[in-house]
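Could someone model iron/sulfur cluster with this protein?
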Amino acid sequence: MNDLEFRQQVLDPISASFCGAKWYNATIWLGSGMTTSCHHPPAHFVPVEEVEANPRALHNSAQKKQDRAQMQQGLRPAGCEYCWKIEDMGRDAISDRVYKSKIYPIEALHEASRLPSHEDTNLRTLEISFDRTCQLACSYCNPAFSSTWVKDIRNNGPYLNLVSDGRNHFTHDHAGSQKYRFGEVNPYVEAFFRWWETDLHKTLTELRITGGEPLMSGYTWQLIDWFKQNRGKSKTRLAINSNLAMDSSRLEELLSATEGIELDIYTSNESIGPHAEYIRDGLDWEQWCENMMLLMKSKRLRGLHNMATINALCLESLPEFLTMLLEWKSKYGQDFPNFTLNILRFPSFQSPLVLPDDIRTKHKQELDRWLANYSNHSMLQEHERNHVQRLIDYLDVVKTPHSDAFDMPRLHNDFKKFYQQYDQRRSKDFGRTFPGLKEWYDGL
Ligand code: SF4
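Reply:
Sure, complex below.
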């Protein structure tokens, strides 16, 4: 059944707005008590009293129950606007509602459609963040997701003189993102472990742990210990988002503790050597490569996934980075690693679109050449080829002109002001690291 047939034959007969993710999927931030059904609707807060009385409220919040009732009646919850916009483009437009429903058995979708909306449902796929503890402070991240970023802001104060839409990322410590320290009683984490013990370990098909850096969170290890002590009790597949900026012994510990469990590791990089260490402050490039090697050689993973974040600074060494991934794939297999290229949109002053046309065109041509060379490489997967082509189109000044050109002076102001302060706070040197951008940068 193709995507359109799935919508017409499975979803539409239930209702015109039904989406399985509202019942079976969640992203939950336990540090702040926020939850959402997928990454499109804005996250909402679940009051402590609700989860203390019923740990399933982490997912079955009053808000979600209201949304489910609307979907059962064919009404459109406002938070899912992303999907409605796509569907309103035309009768055959396929929104994420289809992709995010398709992963569940059809019978489970029918069950959800019949479930009285005040009743709780058990999750099947979950992404969870225990806290924002992280040893890196990447340039496009911010204190909401990294404790090292918090230290930068607390020790040095807010980044000054930023004027574009991304400025608030860098002006305060985002205290609301982490209401509880490790060791302090966090009622959301307690609720999660209670729910895990009673239901979740039986119903979840996939649990993805994100952060911060999850392997630095004591709670992640508490959960891994549970797997170790209860071998075979849960069939849940585990996925971990990790920056791999750690001693290899920690990864060896992870592999041994999760023996017998299906495990995926998602990591992130998009440039080579000094470029990577500049963008991902705190990263040791050699260590990252060694850890990738360790994971590929271990033969313990279901997949090793590299999610590249395409920003203005990575483009110079991106082709070389992609070639390195292909070499690894040739040795260890198509999914060791596989990759996605995710174009950074926010903070917009770090987007590739801030680069002047001649530099953008140069990078586009280099990627064109890369794709021409490797398009038929047996290890390059279709989605990877599509992602490279999508980036080429994005960098094409004809296809993607600077739509926010009127804002460009503000973006350029922030690019310069931000990296000047970043250099000073992090003991870095933009001009020496990116000689190809130096002349343009100095002139900003
Ligand atoms: S309808 Fe769309 S936005 Fe809403 S939960 Fe489903 S996939 Fe996400």
